[in-house]
Amino acid sequence: MATSATSPHATGFPAEGRCGYYVEKKKRFCRMLVAAGKRFCGEHAGAAEDFYIQDINAGLKDETEIPEQLVPISSLSEEQLEKLIKKLRKASEGLNSTLKDRIMSHPALQSALNDPKNGDSATKHLKQQASILGNIEKLKLLGPRRCFVEFGAGKGKLSHWVDIALKDAEKVHFILVEKVTTRFKVDGKHRKKNSVFERLQIDIQHLCLNKIPVLREGKLPVVGIGKHLCGVATDLALRCLVETYAASFEERNEEPLAKRIKNDKTEKEIYTLAKEGNEKNVPEKWNPVAGIVIALCCHHRCDWRHYVGKEYFRALGLGAVEFHYFQRMSSWATCGMRKTSLEASNITTKRQDNQNDDSEEHDDGEYRITDDSADNLPGLLSIEEKKKIGHLCKLLIDQGRIQYLQQKGFSPALQYYTDPLVSLENVLLTALPNHSSSPETTA
Fold first, then answer.
1. Does the reported pTM lie above 0.90?
2. Gap between the Cα atoms of 214 and 141, Å rounded
3. Domains of the chain with CATH codes
4. What number is the average pLDDT over the span 292-312?
5. How far out from the chain centre does Cα 395 lie?
6. In the chain, is it the N or the C terminus that has fewer CB atoms within a 10 Å radius of its CB?
7. C-alpha 440: how far from its chain's center?
């Protein structure tokens, strides 16, 4: 049927009252309604800003590697499933599957943690925030004259606690990145003269940090943070930080302000300081990304195109098909922790009760239901075996991220940052530039 001459497809314009964002994958404009006087819907509002560059953090799209429609794991034959599991176990040989405990706290949250009005959900989230904050401080990333970029910020509570912990530290900027409209935000409550909060409603996939004025002009070192950054969002955030942002300084051959100030010291002065035992006063090499602290989550929501560890997978003889099944199988890591039918019947009530408390948008995997249930698999795998396979899938995906960061000049680590009874998604990814005091790697 011929296309109408007045249709948006024929004219190259969106329909009246609809979003003006062109969805390349679907070869059409977004169909969401927009508010009067607006050009884009809430999710694509960032497209109107200077820091929006479509797919800048998406990664290269290789059509030959994107698999065709794949069957669910439950539809695989016993032989096919066994072959996948053998590949997984072979690829995971030599990896340290036992991570170190880095469960910490921070005095900034002590009062909130002791509040008797807290519900169970609020207490769990506060414990996680306290541990993330404690790890940020341990890595010496909690300080003045820097910009904290919180990815998947939601209500902005992680940045809120970082700001509380910093007290009156000078020249601290917070950029909160969230692609959807969020209710009950806490960043609007901050009125300190030494810290500035800026919220960007944009998908991380299209965020160009070096076009944000405070980073372009002030050149503050960036600390990337996130609490439960779901699946693909972690890969987009890593690429946003260490590839499209940090690399931009090298391409422009630009020397940031902080580095120029440190370079005022001559080599002789630096040598004298070191010789006299004042190594801590020796200026370190400056890096636009000072560090990364991200609580990982939802590996089943990863995507091969955006995944930063493709080279790692290919070196193991794995590709897009194996990645697809491994990321689906990663949900088995929590299959032994399912709620009973009686408990499940109370979920709706619990969520309704939580609407007015301090609960977050994320369920931490407690009530997750996935398409590839571990209950209907070919063969006879016990619950414990499924859990181990799920954890191996998570570990392998995360190891690809570790190698990616190493190749980009960072010293990364994986560690448990909270008890599994607090959150089943309890792994924290940290990374510092190689010149800094490095955390232990997990090869």
1. no
2. 19
3. 17-48 (no CATH), 73-251+286-337+380-433 (3.40.50.150)
4. 95
5. 16
6. N
7. 20
